[in-house]
Every structure is written in structure tokens, then in C-alpha cells.
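writing this on my phone so excuse typos. first protein, seq and then structure
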Amino acid sequence: MDYFRFKHVYNAMFAMLAVTAFGTIGFYYTEDLSIFDAFWLTVITVLTVGYGDAVPEHAAGKMFALIIIPLGIGIVSYATGALATAMIEGELTKTFAKRRMSRVIAKLKDHVIVCGYGRVGEQVLEQLIHTETPTVVVDMQEQELPVNLPKYVHYIVGDATDDEILKNAGIERASGLVTTLPTDADNVFVTLTAKGMNKNLKVIARAEKEQTEDKLIRAGASRVINPSSIGGRQMVFSILKPVSVDYVNAMLHAGKRNYGIEEVKLDRDSPFINKTIGDLQIRTKYGVMILAIVRKEETNSNPEPEEKLLENDVMVIFGSNDSLKEFEKDAQAM
């Protein structure tokens, strides 16, 4: 909790404790009471309850009560106002923030929608933030969402299976949707709804059961990811091929993630078209490695230097982030 934002509440709490301690000590000495009875008399006096079971009986106690009553009323009034202000301002702040975010989301285009911010959704958002991809997160629990989000990441609190919520997330203008809801049934429903609202949308769906994967594909999912299956394979490879696994993890996941894999599509105006890999000297000039070339339905892994690049080829390349950016820029240059 921000101290400066809620300093009036903190000050009120401190003042209440101070006047309670002051009153307890005062009545303890002036009325010759026990600590608890003095505390009880102080509370009912400051809060102006006045049960009648305990009242000052000595002149010194009555004089002390004349001092503490107006002091207590003032502090209690201040504390009540501070709490009310904090509550009202908090709700107003949330309301205005949601309205402002809704206006920003309404202007987004080609963004990615993440449905569900659980363990898987958290990892998805982390990768999207790493690539600075405009993103809208949809989740039922606002408190589960991270704080201090980048300016290109927004969120909507609501049910991702609700058509209106998906519309508010800009489903018609989005380029992709990742549904990571905890149940396969919800992921199937979101996939069907999303594809019905945007047929060009690329949907990546989470599946917990293998038999659900076919259903998600039929529902329109472009890719289906089974975290349990991937995790199992990773564990097996970690036993059988630990050095290879450690190397890949070090390259793609460790530290500042200086290395990565990129897909580069060669458009009609690309200067790389009709040239061979050897002619372009890609490895020497850019320091990247061509892992594969995807051409229509065929994939050419580890292509030879004599391989000629054609229009609409998708090159899968590996290298440092700076090298990947330089290669992509030159490959798409006019």
C-alpha cells in the first residue's frame, strides 16, 4: 500500500492509538482504575457511546474527560472522513482507470488477447512483454493480474467465455488469441466463439487432455498446446540428453535472452527472392543460422547453400536478437 496515497488513513490510525493510550493512562491515575477499566472508559468516552456502566467519579477524572471528549470526537471524525475518502477515491480511481483502458483498447489493432491469467497465462504474458507485443489480458480475478504493466499491455476483468467481454477486448481487430483457461471445455468454447467473431484470428489453445486436442482443432484453433505433454518430454530429454537441454535453455531462456528464433516471410518485394543462401552469405554477413524453410506445405530443414529462396517462403532462423532484427530488416526491405 502506498504511504503517500493513504497517509491520511495512517495518520488517523496513529492519532486514534495515541488518544486511546493517553486516555487510558489519564483515567488510570485520575480514577484509580485498572488498566482494562481505564481502557474501557476511554473507548466509550472517545466514541461517545456512553453505556452508563462506567463514568468519571472524581473531580480530576471529570476534568480529564472534558479534555479528552472534544479531542476524541475530533480525531474520530477525522478518521471516519479519511477512511471514507480512501474508499471513495479508490473506487473512483478504479472506475476512471477502467474507462480510460477501454478507450485505449478500442483503438488497438493486430493485438493479442490472452484469456486466463493462471500459471500458463502468466508465462504467455511474460513472453509477449519480452517481445513488446500489444496485449489484452482477460481474467475473472483482478487481484491475480500483475501490477506496473507496460503501456502496451491492458486488461479486462470478466469471463472470457462471454461474447461481450471478447468484443470489449477488440476481438474483431485482434491478430491472435491465446486461451489458457483451466478447463478444456472453456477453451473449446472460447475458440468457437472467437473464430465466429473473427475468422482470420489465429487461436492458440491450451489442452489438458489429449482427446481434447482434436476438438480444439475442429473448433478452429490454429495450434493446440498441451503443457503436461510438453513438460513430460522436457523431463525425459533432461535425463537422456541433459547437455543439449541445458544448452537450449541457456540460449532461449536464461539471463537477458540474447538469443532467439524468428520467422521471416519473404514478400514479393524482398531482395532475397530468387537468390540462393550461398549467394546471400547469410551466416557470414548476419551471424544467424537458417534452421528451416517452410514452402507451402513442405518444410526443408537445414537447407543447403544452393537452395534458392522464393516468394512467400518462411525462413526459420536462429541467432542473437540484434542479428535477427538486422536480418529481418534487410529481408523485408524494398
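second protein below, same order as before
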Amino acid sequence: MQKLRIAVTMGDPAGIGPEITAKLFLLPEIYKNASVTVIGDLTTMIDTQRRVSNKLSIRPVTSFNEKMTKGVINLFDMKLIKYGEVPLGVETKKGGKAQYHYVKKAIESALKGEVDAIVTAPINKHALHMAGIMYPGHTEILAKETGVKNFGMMLMCPQLKVMLVTTHTSLKSVSGLLTVKKVLEKIELAHTAMKDDFGIKAPRIAVLGLNPHSGEAGAFGDEEIKIITPAIKAAQKKGINAQGPYPPDTIFGKLIHKQSHDIAVCMYHDQGLIPLKLIGFESGVNVTLGLPIVRTSPDHGTAYDIAGTNIASVESMLTAFKTAVVIAQNRMKNR
């Protein structure tokens, strides 16, 4: 099979992104199926490489087709940061601007067909905003730059996959944001991803209720009756095996321990993320669905409190990398 070309953005230069990016190159798994290029800044990566391991070195490159050598980090240097400009563990305007441009370069390269997938190290939302870049996070940047309107955030670990209908919003606003159309769109995105990206021929989709006991026939809320059930029925009419709405307090045991379904469509952020992070905190992966490109990311933040200490776990980053490989390979098969 042809080797994939994967771009890894180093994330917020003040966080643990550069560290977990460098640590990837100490792992034999990344050399098997892909040619990997880091998009970031040489000044930051040299500092990081020295802290992480004396078995690593850096080779500046100008394309994504360079041959890989074990222990050598191929780096596409964006030249955005001078030495000492972005201190570790501190939100800065300079760091916010740089992390945005790493992602933008990766997206542009994927859209041009120069890379087959992108893996993004964590960014800091407040640093983005300090730089005047007013996105809530990676997902919205990706959607804007690829021109996609219908997109979604899927989080996964080896035992569980969850799709979120609403994401970064207050709990009190969730009910007002739910519509039949929106729930149906997320069910469809989940169905397509399971088939095309993960090779599941007949995906089983669990759709969760919003309220305790899924509303108890309207006793605790009517969103299940008015919104969620009609969306499930509409999906079923399209040939999608969507079932529910399931009470959120009971379905996760069946999903995790009995593999009752392939993915859960959750109504709000913490409904899906609490169980997922409980069982897979260090192996969680964020996958953006609905894009014309492949994008994965570790499911954790910039961890300013441990930046520069060399104790950050690379597990989630490695799982994100492996997931990007799987998705890219499956999409190539389906072309």
C-alpha cells in the first residue's frame, strides 16, 4: 500500500503540543504507513527536541514528500516565532497567531492534495482570541477554511465513539439549539463516517435523549417527543439504522461493555465527553466529520501547567495519528 503523507501541526507553542509532537518520532509505529511532516516553528521545535531526547534531530523541509529517517523530525518551518518570543505556559498574542497559521497551512496543503491527512496538536482558544482570531476552536476553523456548512465533532477512544449535536455552548442553551434538522444531520454524519471512514458496512447508531429517562413520555421534558424521535424516524426512512432515544444514564454501559452500537449521538458536550474521558482520558481522539479532508487531534488541551516538564503523555497523540491513518486508508479504498 502507498505510504500516506501526514501533516502534524505542533499546536500552541506555549503548551505541550510541541512536546507530544516530538515524542511521536520516538515511536516506531509512525514510520510504518506514512511520511510525516511537522508544521510549526524551528525555534520552538529545537528547544523541544533538546528537552525530549538526544536521539532526535530536526531537518527543515520545503515539501511534504521528503523521505523519513528514524529519529529525524521533518519540519516545515513557518518562521513565525523568534527565539524567546513565546514563553512556555503563557498565553500570548504571538502564540495565538502562530498556532492559527500552522492549522491554516495544514488545511491548505490537504485541500491541494499535498497531504492525505492532518493531525493537529492542541491550541489555546484564549490565545487565538488575543490575536484577534475569534474562533471557538479547531473545528470551526476547519469548517470555515474548507467551506463546509454541515460538519460535526466526533470523539472516540478504543471502547466508545460519540457524536455531539451541540458542542461548546451553555447547558441552558442546549434545548433551544436542538432541531429535527440538526439532530438528523448529526445522525447522517455519524452513519457516513462509520461506513466510509471506519469500514463498518451496516452501522448501528444509538441516539440519546436530552432529559432524565429520555423525558419519561413528556413528564421531564418534551424534546424527545418533538425533536429527537422525529429525527430518528427521518433517518430510518433514509435507510439508517438509528435507534432511540435512549436514556443517557443506562445506554453507555451497553455501548462500552456489550458493544450494542457503533456510535452514540449525544445532545450536548458533557453527555458524551464524561463517559468517554472516564474510560479513555489518555487515548481520546477528536475527529472532525463532514470535511473533504481527514483531520484528527488528541482529545486534551494545551496543559500549560506541565509545559516544558517533559511529562506529557503521547498516548492520545499517537492514537490520533493511528486514527488518521485508518481514515485516510479507508477513504482511498472508496475513491
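The two ends are 15 Å apart (CA to CA). thats all i got for now
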